[in-house]
Design brief:
11 helices, binds S-adenosylmethionine, alpha/beta
Length: 390
Amino acid sequence: MPRALTMIDLFAGCGGMSLGFEGEGYRSIMAVEFDAHAAATYVANRPHMEGKVFCQDIADVPTAEIPKADLVIGGPPCQGFSNLGSKDVNDPRNKLWKEYLRFVNEADPKVFVLENVDRFRRSSEFDLLLREADGGLLKNYVLEHALLVASDYGVAQRRPRTIVIGTRRDIVDEHPKMGPITPPKPTHARVPDLLGLKEWETVRSRIYDLPWDVQVTDLPTKEVKTIFDKPIPGPFTGLEIHVGRNPVPMSLQRYAHIHPGGGRHHLPDELLSPCWRNKPKGTTDVMGRMRWDAPSPTIRTEFFKPEKGRYLHPQWNPALHPRWNPDEPSNSVNRPITHLEAALLQDFPREYKWYGTKVSIARQIGNAVPVGLARAIAFHVKSELESRGH
Ligand SMILES: C[S@@+](CC[C@H](N)C(=O)[O-])C[C@H]1O[C@@H](n2cnc3c(N)ncnc32)[C@H](O)[C@@H]1O
């Protein structure tokens, strides 16, 4: 049996990225996450990580605690996108990047994999990173980057993400013809093809079999445990997080008007809010309804608020729809997706254990790297390392 590749997960959140890598046989040996609720979720699903999750600001983790590892995964949240952004490493916004570089230098991984929002590639932090690889603190690494969309890797969600892969220079130099590891090529597409691309996964494939009628609006009452010195309720799992909201009658009337793929632009005038009436263009996803047979849009941290995006459940009275298929049941589900539905669209397993409040669990889910995307990257990096004899 080959030894499992070890990894350190920085800014680990609830562990979406780690879970994808673990699915390909990697073993987490250290994680850093300063939000106690997310860190509690991370450990609850990995009992072997007890004592190895540093629930503190990354800047406060002593260098002596950083082990050697095969991989470093995760990346600092991107803070600024202004064109005025400073490229100065001493700019306070770049503090987290300095920390990231400190970890990479100390752990000396073969590869690091950094995930960030799509706009990261236009940020000053990204410039800083490229500059460090060009003779600076990352001079031992060769960087490759690309914009990956999760649905192109078998996730039922169109979530664009910047992925940067750094390969240690000695590994690149051993096999100059192979070059550095580049981000993986898509495995899925809207239209499958003869070359082996499979068809995109759909919302239906992930959430169709869950109960549509959700009356419960709160997480069940659980014992509050002290974890990382904080009182945190949990764990919640499976249908326990299949919780809805209590929309006011006006919201229900709005939801009823919106067909799959539609949004606030399809509301009759009397149901428009004044701000929508004054701003008839733009923000097409607001109050949007998902489609059963397409990937979902990006699941963000406030997926439970339809006014924030295309988060209405896809089931809508088909009798009202021009392309009604009479085989479909004709009831509508007039609510946003639940926490469980959001977690499944992020490719978490139903039995994942969650700690925290309703709001903090939503944040953990929305912040995560879709497990399937992480797994596709993990698979690719592992096979690329193997083909280079590592
Ligand atoms: C985008 S989320 C990471 C999601 C994670 N990779 C996953 O797949 O679940 C970024 C995380 O960084 C954490 N974070 C931000 N600043 C931090 C800091 N200074 N020290 C430690 N963690 C930090 C946040 O609490 C948040 O959970």
